[in-house]
User: Which sequence fits this backbone?
């Protein structure tokens, strides 16, 4: 073979090699996994408990009042949330007051809605433990709740992804009760937070999006919502780490006479239960997308503030024993909320249930919880920008 022929052959081989490498590179780029775009594709699995890449407060980008989220958004995505109020499935203290059929039917009428939602959340009112010494002096106005750990799996089977522990019954059996409750929820993969000095917030993942939860209470062992500096610090800390930020709070006076939302600070049994209007607006100004409350044991009004939805109290939800279910205390609303990828409210539905002693929430064809929330919203919120129908459908008035 002469030198010219050999050179041409080598040139041809090099060209073919370049073409082959180009095809390989293009194919590998087309087949890259979604993880390289910064989102886990783990479906609706719980995200673990670590705090992820928190930025300093000074790095947050703010407009006039509201802190702008910095996490990546999927512009075509929507999320559906299901929110409920207090859950205390039964107690063994001071006597056994447990539901019928060993608790198997507690969530019978509600689980389809909870399971079909992308994220379901509520308030775990009490402990999941089997022993310990109560920290309370039990009386006609003071209760201690100890739900058997054998009931824990009902929460997962019902569809819950997150449960707040920031309430006035989480410490009923001291640190032992708190640790037992945390172990049960962690084993089930249910997010939790709200106890001071322990876990500050929780992140749940679904549809490649990160949903962050903060939970605030009014007791000294909770992360207190009356401490506005701490509220601000945590919301600012969590905001850049997540796509949607949800705030849960336990606050307000209690009982049938506490259904209306007052202006200013609320007191109950001499305790500061918070200025709730100020609290929720502060959270949204700092970046929260959804705020839902519980604590009064009765439903309260709703509000749309800067495009973000607020439920001031969802009352009791599954409290079949040792909690009064008379009148509106037995109303058990389940709030379904749809938001866009930036957390802006699209529409919703108040599903009405009535609690029956020893049984749990059961469907209410009269839609009494929805009608109560509608009436309270009309009376307590000026320009709420929400339209609630008699059967519980919620739309934005600016979208009518």
Assistant:
């Amino acid at each position: 073979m002469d030198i010219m022929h050999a050179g041409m052959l080598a040139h041809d081989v090099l060209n073919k090699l370049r073409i082959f490498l180009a095809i390989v590179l293009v194919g590998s780029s087309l087949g890259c996994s979604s993880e390289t775009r910064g989102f886990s594709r783990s479906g609706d699995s719980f995200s673990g408990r670590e705090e992820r890449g928190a930025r300093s407060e000074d790095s947050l980008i703010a407009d006039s009042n509201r802190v702008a989220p910095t996490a990546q958004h999927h512009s075509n995505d929507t999320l559906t949330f299901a929110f409920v109020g207090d859950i205390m499935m039964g107690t063994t203290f001071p006597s056994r007051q447990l539901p019928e059929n060993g608790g198997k039917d507690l969530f019978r009428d509600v689980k389809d809605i909870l399971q079909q939602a992308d994220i379901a959340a509520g308030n775990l009112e009490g402990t999941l433990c089997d022993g310990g010494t109560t920290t309370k002096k039990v009386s006609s106005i003071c209760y201690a709740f100890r739900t058997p750990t054998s009931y824990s799996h009902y929460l997962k089977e019902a569809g819950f992804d997150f449960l707040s522990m920031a309430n006035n019954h989480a410490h009923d059996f001291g640190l032992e009760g708190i640790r037992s409750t945390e172990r049960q929820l962690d084993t089930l993969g249910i997010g939790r937070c709200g106890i001071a000095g322990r876990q500050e917030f929780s992140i749940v993942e679904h549809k490649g999006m990160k949903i962050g939860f903060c939970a605030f209470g009014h007791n000294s062992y909770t992360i207190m919502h009356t401490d506005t500096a701490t509220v601000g610090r945590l919301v600012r800390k969590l905001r850049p780490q997540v796509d949607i930020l949800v705030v849960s709070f336990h606050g307000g006076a209690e009982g049938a006479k506490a259904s209306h939302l007052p202006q200013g600070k609320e007191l109950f049994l001499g305790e500061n239960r918070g200025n709730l209007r100020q609290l929720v607006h502060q959270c949204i100004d700092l970046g929260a997308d959804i705020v839902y409350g519980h604590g009064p044991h009765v439903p309260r009004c709703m509000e749309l503030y800067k495009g973000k939805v607020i439920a001031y109290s969802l009352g009791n939800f599954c409290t079949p024993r040792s909690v009064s279910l008379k009148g509106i205390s037995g109303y058990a609303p389940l709030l379904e909320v749809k938001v866009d990828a930036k957390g802006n409210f699209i529409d919703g539905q108040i599903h009405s249930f009535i609690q029956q002693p020893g049984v749990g929430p059961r469907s209410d064809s009269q839609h009494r919880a929805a009608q109560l929330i509608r009436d309270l919203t009309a009376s307590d919120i000026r320009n709420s920008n929400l339209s609630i129908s008699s059967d519980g459908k919620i739309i934005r008035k600016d979208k009518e």
Observations:
- Helices lie at 3-30, 111-116, 153-158, 174-188, 228-238, 276-285, 368-380.
